[in-house]
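Feature request, filed as a ticket because there's no other form

It would be nice if the structure record came with a short human-readable summary line next to the tokens. Right now we just get the raw output. Example of a typical job, pasted below so the devs can see what we mean:
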Amino acid sequence: MAAKAKVKFKRYEIPGLQARPPWWPVRVDEITAGVKAARKGEFEQIATSAGGLPVWAVAYGPPRPKPGTATWGSGSNSRNVASYRTNEGNPQVVMLVCGVHAA
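Raw output as currently delivered:
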């Protein structure tokens, strides 16, 4: 596990700003707790960001035996949901990428 990242910005509250909903974690400790709370998947820290923060992966099931043929680029430029599916059968794979500045 990587060393704990140093917070670069002092946390503060903005008066009058609507509170963030509880289902929207953004702080490093909130993300880490959410990942570690995964009940069905297996979690692993797969990298450390340039700022020293952990990059997590949660896997649900074994990896695919062969490389996939659909890419984000091939599906993202289409308005057809079927562009994200391949002819490889199930299960389909979903990758979510989240950018948090950890300020």
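Something like this underneath would help us a lot:
The CA atoms of residues 36 and 62 lie 18 Å apart.
Residues 22-103 form one domain.
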